[in-house]
Design goal:
Two copies of one chain form a homodimer. In chain A, helix 1 crosses helix 7 and helix 7 packs across helix 8. The first copy, chain A, is an alpha/beta fold. In chain A, strand 2, helix 2 and strand 3 form a beta-alpha-beta unit. Chain A contains eight helices and five strands; from the N terminus they run βαβαβααβααβαα. Chain A has a single domain, classed as 3-Layer(aba) Sandwich (Rossmann fold), CATH 3.40.50. Chains A and B meet through strand 3, helix 4, helix 5 and helix 6 of A and strand 3, helix 4, helix 5 and helix 6 of B.
């Protein structure tokens, strides 16, 4: 029997990363989940991440604190309003104010650091280029370039002891396809959190881009979103 | 008169980064210094970073806390002994245990995030490929690849509003050349800290790779190292 391979899976606690973790598990990886407390407005997603990690019985789950509010520059980390009730056309035009400068580069770099310390060569990230709301660091060419960097930045880039791969199983799926894939793998979407601007009790607003994409996804998947929304 | 350009300069508080900051200033950049409290054994370098930033009258100096001890895998962040009194041949053979997994990738990613929030396109890092002790993330090919990534990962990679450049003014200099360059620019090396394993009062050990490279550099530069060492 081949040795089980370890993978580091970025886990925000949202719908996409929960599905990505389920896919990594279904492919036989021993999963190490990595979350970030980066000063995001929607810190409720971290409680969701913990629940999703437990439900998937990951080998380990680490949350790294890294205060990106010190840089500012995003509606998720600075005092800028989160846009609400935007139509699809507006949502897909340009880069939204919820973009956090270099966020996926930072997150993947840290996943790479943990992977190297663990002896893992597989990273999983739930980026999506279909419903991606114009984030530059969700594009396939970004992922390709990061993979090249990973294979130069590390010991393996010197001694050829292995080759890093960045898995993006959702990158070409619609939200509805992601949800159907997750349901087929038994993902409990009731544990996940997507809203950028929840109430102080953690109830989703239903109107930010993230809530809208989620609700539309469940509709198109012909399925019911199990989480509550503010009325 | 052309507008002053902003640069984000990685500042550890060591000899190399202090010289790099002086070079960035001498080239006319408005400097934003970035340091990391990553759980390093030699946290005294952060006090040095603050002094060096003040001496150079930077526009701003941010220290980001990011606990890389959660990953382990390095003598600088885990309970592994720092090697002492190694000869040059041993020092340059292989990757030392003081290598921190993906550290420069993480640091440059965060510098990129701040640069993007500031509207800066220039990053400075004091990596060195001569005395570099075998760290994979100090090689010129790593820097080239990171630059390509930076130009895909960000808004500028979508709207072509600018092009990121990673400046490595020390990359091909010997330690003696770095010191002579710094002296010509007025760097006060008495403010800097290089030791990986200082005493609890912050006095340098004189025996780790970093102390040895520093001492040899001052000798070859025909100059006196102004810092104290344990007797």
């Amino acid at each position: 029997m081949p040795e089980t391979k370890r993978a580091v899976v970025l886990l925000s606690g949202g719908l996409d990363s929960a599905t990505t973790l389920a896919i990594a598990k279904s492919e036989g990886y021993e999963c190490y989940a990595l979350s970030f407390d980066y000063g995001q407005r929607h810190r409720f997603e971290l409680e969701a991440a913990t629940k999703v990690a437990q439900a998937n019985r990951v080998e380990d789950h680490i949350t790294i604190d890294i205060d990106l509010r010190k840089f500012g520059g995003s509606a998720l980390t600075a005092d800028i309003d989160v846009p609400k009730d935007r139509d699809e056309e507006t949502m897909s035009a340009g880069i939204p104010v919820t973009y956090v400068p270099a966020r996926n580069t930072v997150f993947l770099s840290l996943a790479l650091g943990w992977a190297e310390a663990l002896g893992a060569f597989d990273l999983f990230i739930g980026v999506n280029a279909v419903d991606y709301s114009g984030y530059p660091d969700c594009r396939p060419e970004f992922i390709e370039q990061f993979t090249k960097l990973a294979n130069l930045a590390t010991k393996a880039g010197v001694d050829n002891s292995g080759k890093f791969e960045v898995h993006t199983p959702l990158i070409h799926l619609t939200k509805a396809e992601i949800i159907n894939k997750g349901i087929s793998l038994g993902v409990d979407y009731g544990l996940t959190h997507s809203c950028y601007d929840p109430s102080s009790e953690g109830v989703s607003c239903g109107h930010c881009d993230s809530c809208q994409l989620r609700q539309k996804g469940f509709q198109e998947a012909g399925s019911v979103d199990p989480i509550a929304y503010q009325s």
